[in-house]
């Protein structure tokens, strides 16, 4: 699994960024679910430092917060995901749906928030 940053990808929303998890296996997705479950138990997860994530230019930390802020850009290539426990649990259900799907061409937004950085699960990095 890789974590990529897509910047200014849509002319109708030129300021938006997308953090995309792509090129994954079902095992990667199951490991992602384990990480998210750990976050819901109060742990901070350095997602980009997990063994199943290919190392690249982006770092993403997952935190539980009282309110859903989504992914925020901290500095350079450092991002934090601030979501409520409920939203992380909803994310697990969305990932399970991808695991159960037979298609590798689809994509799944991992939260539905009006924020400037989206979070996407897409095997081929397309949406």
Number of helices: 2
Average the pLDDT over all residues and give the rounded result.
Answer: 90
Please identify the structural class as seen in this structure: alpha/beta
Largest sheet: 4 strands, mixed
Radius of gyration: 13 Å
Q: Which percent range fits the helix content?
A: 10-25%
Distance between the termini: 17 Å
Which outline best applies? globular
Total E-strand runs: 8
Q: Which range does the strand content fall in?
A: 25-35%
**Strands side by side in the biggest sheet:** 1-2-8-7
Low-confidence residue ranges: none
Order of helices and strands: EEHEEEEHEE
Characteristics:
32% strand, 127 residues, four-stranded mixed β-sheet, alpha/beta
């Amino acid at each position: 699994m890789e974590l990529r940053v897509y910047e200014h990808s849509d002319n109708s929303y030129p300021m938006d960024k997308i953090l995309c998890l792509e090129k994954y296996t079902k095992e990667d997705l199951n490991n992602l679910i384990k990480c998210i479950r750990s976050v819901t138990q109060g742990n901070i997860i350095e997602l980009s430092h997990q063994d199943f994530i290919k190392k690249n230019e982006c770092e993403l930390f997952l935190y539980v917060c009282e309110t859903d802020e989504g992914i925020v850009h901290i500095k350079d290539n450092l991002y934090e995901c601030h979501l409520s426990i409920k939203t992380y649990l909803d994310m697990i259900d969305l990932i399970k749906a991808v695991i159960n799907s037979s298609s590798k061409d689809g994509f799944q937004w991992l939260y539905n928030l009006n924020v400037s950085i989206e979070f996407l699960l897409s095997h081929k990095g397309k949406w």
